[in-house]
Amino acid sequence: MIAIDGTALALNADPGIPEGARRLIWEEFFRSRDRGVDWSTHLPWAIVGEAICVSVTDSSVTAETGARVAALVIRRLHDTPAAMAGFVCVAPSHRGLGLSRIMLDFAASILAEFGLKEMLLWTGTPAVYKSSGFTLCEQEQRWTMRGMAAQGDYGLQLDAWPSASTEPPPGLPPFATAAWQATSDKARIVFADTPKGSFLLDMHGGPDAITRAMFTARPGQWTMFASERRQPVFHAHVVASGYLVQSCPGPCTLRRPLGTVLMQTDYVPPAFRI
Asked: Which among 125, 159, 173, 229 has most CB atoms closer than 10 A?
């Protein structure tokens, strides 16, 4: 139990996502922003054995979300000693009490016990997490690009993503309605359909082959998070090609060490973040 301003609150850690936390996350990240398909489309991995939910309950509250007034989700980044934190949310009635920091501190203590070395988080408001021990590693740029399909037969194969056999499934970002994988003999891309056009989630191949695959699969407007440090050749190609029409600050990658040994996990494409 914790007490804040005379209010007794309970701090919880649950395998999977309890129903009250599901309702709170769906309200804050999806319904209130008029987006989202359904829970299983966006968070199919949020199950026992794949995810941990840290939440705060207030037994005096009776609302649509039940007594859960704050929640966040933790998922291990497979084949690494790192965990990803996401869907950090606090009900409007309990904001300003420092519950996000309390939950993140609690999550860090749990993860350290399992030998994990760092916690990753992506956000557009990095200052919010400074007091929780997170440091800024990189800020990507949000690019808007436009182009038309190349002439001739490009031999592009388009399939739904992720496939039914993908385990564990990554799930769609909250802003997406569907996702696809486009493959040629020289490139492979993963992208999402969104109300504002196509969004690039992952890419493999040379820069020219990637952009050809993009605009063959979906001519017109694309958005992506671009990292000049991580993708210098692709970055230079897009800038020189004339595809780029707008650039503005994108999400920040934040890291919190969970022990005395410092490490740095490799770049995580947007397709696999939470």
From this structure: 173
